[in-house]
Design a protein that fits this description.
Layout (H helix, E strand, L loop, with lengths): L2 H7 L4 H41 L3 H10 L5 H9 L5 H20 L2 H33 L4 H20 L1
Helix pairs in contact: 2-3, 2-6, 3-4, 4-5, 6-7
């Protein structure tokens, strides 16, 4: 069976599930690329900072953090740029920057949570629609054989499986 045949055999419920699947894959791939880039930038910043600290050059440490595009360097930049601040003030600024970095890393994860929570229920809805179709076929034909209910049962099983897979 081809992919389009499977989608069509699952009924109309398959279209939102297909849409959710595409969105989930797009978000996941974007997150993978973002985290890979974040890791790469973090390693570069760490290397630059290590060289500056080894050379005992505080100006280069500050410059490395300021020139970094990685959000990992923002909390460190607070520490380096506010060395004369009070301990409480430093904690507050650092907590704020760490929260911003954490928020940036979690960006768009709510989409995956929403899709993963709702897709099984959409598949279950497809199950109900398929079984209702089977009962309707029994009612219209007056027979209850396998050939009468197989289309509705097949539709319900395909929709259930797709909801679970997504």
């Amino acid at each position: 069976m081809r992919g389009i045949d499977i989608i069509q055999s699952g009924g109309f419920v398959m279209y939102p599930l297909l849409t959710f699947s595409v969105i989930a894959w797009a978000v996941a791939l974007h997150k993978i690329v973002s985290l890979w880039d974040f890791s790469k930038q973090s390693k570069k910043v760490n290397s630059d900072i290590h060289q500056a600290i080894t050379a005992k050059n505080l100006a280069n440490v500050k410059l490395s953090y300021q020139n970094s595009q990685s959000s990992i360097s923002r909390p460190h930049e607070v520490l380096v740029n506010n060395m004369n601040a009070s301990k409480e003030d430093m904690k507050e600024r650092l907590a704020r920057k760490l929260c911003e970095t954490n928020s940036e890393l979690k960006k768009n994860l709510w989409i995956l949570g929403t899709i993963s929570a709702s897709s099984p229920f959409i598949g279950l809805f497809g199950t109900v629609v398929g079984i209702m179709g089977s009962f309707k076929a029994i009612g219209t034909s007056g027979k209850s054989g396998f050939s009468v209910v197989s289309v509705g049962i097949s539709e319900s099983l395909v929709a259930t499986a797709a909801g679970i897979i997504v």
